[in-house]
Design goal:
single chain; 229 residues; alpha/beta; Rossmann fold; OB fold (Dihydrolipoamide Acetyltransferase, E2P); 2 domains; five-stranded parallel beta sheet; 7 helices; 33% strand; elongated
Amino acid sequence: MNCIIIEDQPPAQRILRKYIEDQGTLQLLEVFSDPTKALTYLQENEIELIFLDINLPKLSGISFLKTLQKRPQVILTTAYSEYALDGYELDVVDYLLKPFSFERFLKAVSKVRSSKTEPSIADLPARREHFIKIGYEHIRIAFEDILFLAADGDYCEIYLQGKKHLSSEPLKKWIELLEGWDFFRVHKSYVVNVHQIEKVTGSQIVLRDGNSIPIGRAYKEDFMAKFLS
């Protein structure tokens, strides 16, 4: 797999060069300090993977990504963890927080090998919705419309934009139904759609609609490792 580096700091460039060489299956084609020159290069060349620093001169890595119409797979690198959720929202492969080890680098690259540049509907799980019985009606719940789920005894509350439904099926059943979709259990009583996360403050997740969800102590380490490391 071919790749390029977009990084303005020479020490960081050297580390990435060394890691790519030691990894063995990546072919490094170019290294750019100036993101505007990288844009020109990408218009003329087919690149499969970019190692992209967020803090760049002239154009930030996040802004750089937003300018790309056809986006290669991207691994972000930065010294600032607060950008992690921005990167996740842009569908990057992984986020490396400087300084990162060779082992952490390998973990990120392993995700590239198993991912696809342009996911399609066919790549998603076959089940995309579920019907719940409310009174004499059956209501269709599309998985992508769910903001979060909350356990309510043997029942489960399904929160959608501006409304919620009470499902007679427990949270455990919904976790099984949502397997393969971007939902993450952050508390014994809560499962969240990660695309709805606006920010993380301490042990609270704030969603785009303003709802706040606690992160349970037993789940915090896994959540932080997956999305903020």
